[in-house]
Amino acid sequence: MKRWLRSAWSRAVQTARLCCGVPDYDTYVRHLRDHHPDRPVPSYAAFFRERQEARYKGTGGRCC
């Protein structure tokens, strides 16, 4: 039960962040390692800056 609550809480937090426009860095890093192993993993600051630019400058959002 405790594990289920922790998992549900984690998903709820991730959903709330996505609704507010704050993407999940850990999910992004996993995506990069799984689908784009040749790309370097950016720091959190670089990731956040790039996501903010993409959101507010209208340069798109997804790579694939």
UniProtKB/TrEMBL annotation:
<dbReference type="InterPro" id="IPR007423">
    <property type="entry name" value="Sel_put"/>
</dbReference>
<dbReference type="Pfam" id="PF04328">
    <property type="entry name" value="Sel_put"/>
</dbReference>
<protein>
    <submittedName>
        <fullName>Uncharacterized short protein YbdD, DUF466 family</fullName>
    </submittedName>
</protein>
